Amino acid sequence: MMVRWMILFLGGFHTALAQSDSLNPDRPTVFSVEVGGLTASGPRTPFWLWANQFGTVPLESPTGFIRAGMRGRLHRPNPDKPRALHIGYGLEVVGNLNRHSRVILPEAYVSLRGRWLNFYGGRRREIYGLVDTLLSGGSYAWSGNALPTPRVQLSTNGFVPLGFSRGFMAVYAVYAHGWLARTDSVRGAYLHHKSVFGRFGRGPLKVFAGINHFVQWAGTSRYVSSAHAVNGRMPSSFRDYLYVITARQPDAGSSAHSRHDSLNYLGNHLGSIDLALEARFGSSDWLIYTQHPFEDKSGVLFKNFPDGLYGVRWRNRSADTPGPFRLSQITAEFLTTLNQSGATIVRPNSRYEGADEYFNNYQYIDGWTTRGRVIGTPFFTRWMDARPEWYNMPGAFTRMMISNNRVRVLHLGLAGKGRSGWQIRVLLSQSWNRGRPMRPAPQTDFGQFSGLAQVLLPLKGLKDTYLNAGLAMDRGGWLPDRVGGSLSLRKVW
Predict the structure, then answer these.
(1) How many CB atoms lie within 10 A of CB 354?
(2) Angle at the Cα of 355 from the Cα atoms of 48 and 260, rounded to 5 degrees
(3) What pLDDT is attached to residue 199?
(4) Which 8-state DSSP code applies to residue 249?
(5) Cross-strand partners of 470
(6) pLDDT given at position 185
(7) Which residues fall within 8 angstroms of residue 363, CB to CB, at 6 or more apart?
(8) What is the mean pLDDT of each run of 10 residues along the chain (493 residues)?
(9) According to the model, what pLDDT value does residue 405 have?
């Protein structure tokens, strides 16, 4: 389950804005096969064995799995024709064997890349936001925790320099339309996504800033009231699409819009405002980043400050390994979402509402989830993923899909490499969980620890063949206590 080869390195760090189509010129197509399994002390898989794995690892244990994938291009790039178009493709099939066996496709896409622009259609592993991806606890809005959503996407080809700035400024932009999976409550919903990022600086010091904007919109539902949908339908016309992409309220008095639509923006809007600083000193590569969440105007205007993800990553750029082991990276993060623009919806003497209810929505009642997984940070939990005693905790007005979105998390990630080629990755997370805004959600913290140690061992005599072993544990007051492990064999050629 090594993610690193699927992520694009931009500006020297994992911005995780898109996936790379670049391949070794001598190997225009890469194939991989992995066979293994996992087990745990209970019927549920420990947190760090399934979190941020693009929805490919089942929540139930024990499980056997087989994965096969390919990624490549139809022709080799020609350095004499840098403007030529390049066609890429990727396919990954995962079969999970347990009581609810199934086959899934986390990747199935075709891409067309030019000098400045990149277009693709299908499913592709992606993480959005300014964040480290190898050891992070997860990007706030789109973390790689859920199965990728089918989409068509147009983006710049990485950061594109602005000519007039002589390389001082560069822009990365994404615009996409997607089709969200059918849930228990809504069918036929769409995804709108756009991101814009700027890079400023030259040499060893660079500043990055930008915004991610996601919207669930359209669809039909039998489970929402007439106050939230007209005859069970959410707005889906082209004019409604314009309201969605511009984040504007619809015209008042329209019979095509419900009372909910008339009082709010069309769809379920959310995202993050990101800022990062990258610095290189000698053999050290530093990244300091923050992601500020928003669900409405109050978040965009930072009325929910200090809510957000704050992180720092140190990477060892030295290729030397003087001893038997070299520490290659350390990532430390703090996530807090306790403010939410205030504990109640109505805030005296304020133009803006509170109780932002991150990742919950009263139209899209399965919230910011797809195929049984939270799309954003995995530290926000669905009600059925918590301990049984917390299943019926109502929070504000009724039980919602996301039962825990008021959290504080300290997260530490470590990665290293041995002289003989083996690699290790350690993730340690301590969270304090308070449920949802407004009483009767918990007003005290429920502590939770989750940890993972993972080793990748190259097998001598078998080229590009690896043994992947992991040990994970959950202990605390929010998730069921459990210990589990995974073991797999992977071949790449």
Answers:
(1) 20
(2) 110
(3) 98
(4) P
(5) 454, 486
(6) 82
(7) 186, 221, 224, 228, 229, 234, 260, 267, 268
(8) 31 32 62 97 96 97 97 74 82 96 97 94 97 97 97 96 94 98 88 98 96 96 87 93 93 80 89 98 95 94 96 89 87 96 72 84 93 97 91 69 94 94 96 81 82 96 94 97 98 94
(9) 94
Structure tokens at 111: 């891409």
Are the CB atoms for 487 and 469 separated by under 8 Å? yes
Q: Residue 206: what are its φ and ψ, rounded to 5°?
A: -140, 150
**Closest CA relative to residue 279, chosen from 361, 204, 383:** 204
Residue 382 half-sphere exposure, CB side, CA atoms within 13 Å?
20
**Other C-beta atoms within 10 Å of 318: how many?**
12
- Among left, alpha and beta (phi > 0; psi -120 to 50; other), residue 467 is beta
What is the tally of helices (H) and strands (E) in the chain? 4, 23
Greatest CA separation found in the chain? 73
- How is residue 474 written in tokens? 């959950």
Q: Extract the tokens encoding 393.
A: 């905790």
- The predicted pLDDT at position 10 comes to 30
Shortest CA distance to 216 belongs to which of 239, 193, 190?
A: 190
Enter the tokens of residue 9: 């390195």
CA distances (Å), origin 476, targets 77, 450, 481: 52, 9, 7
Q: What global pTM score does this model have?
A: 0.91
Distance between CA atoms of 242 and 244, rounded to whole angstroms?
5
CA 169 to chain centre: 26
